[in-house]
Amino acid sequence: MINDQTTARVRAILTEAIAGLDPADLNERIAWCREHNQHGVRMHTTADDDLLEFRWGGRRLALVRADDLADPDAVLRAEFVADDVPDTVPDDWAGGAR
């Protein structure tokens, strides 16, 4: 069950994440929401990692461990995690094909 403390922690995560967006990203997300008539942040769970993903504007806004969110003593850390960065570095980024 979600209590007031958990709600406040979610609000803090989302507030910090939105404040950290650059103006172009913020405008793109707002435009996406208007274009797709999908307003607000949506939370999704991951199948194997016990992570909560908060999506807004068609892409990830924040990612947090469910256990950390539920634990009032856990320190929540924010990190930028891009949706579109590949797991490996393409050859052209590493100075050409090898």
Give the key terms.
98 residues, alpha+beta
Structure write-up:
With 98 residues, the protein is an alpha+beta fold. The protein has a domain at 4-70. Helix content is 36%, strand content 17%. The chain is built from 3 helices and 3 strands, in the order ααβββα. It has helices spanning 4-19, 23-36, 66-70, and strands at 42-45, 51-56, 59-65. It has a 3-stranded antiparallel beta sheet with strand order 1-2-3. A hairpin with a 2-residue loop joins strand 2 and strand 3 (59-65). The longest helix has 16 residues, at 4-19. It is globular. The mean pLDDT is 81.
Radius of gyration: 16 Å
Structural class category: alpha+beta
The total beta strand count reads 3
Q: How far apart, in Å, are the first and last alpha carbons?
A: 53 Å
Work out the helicity level: 25-40%
Summed up, the helix count is 3
Mean pLDDT equals 81
Point out poorly predicted stretches. Answer: none
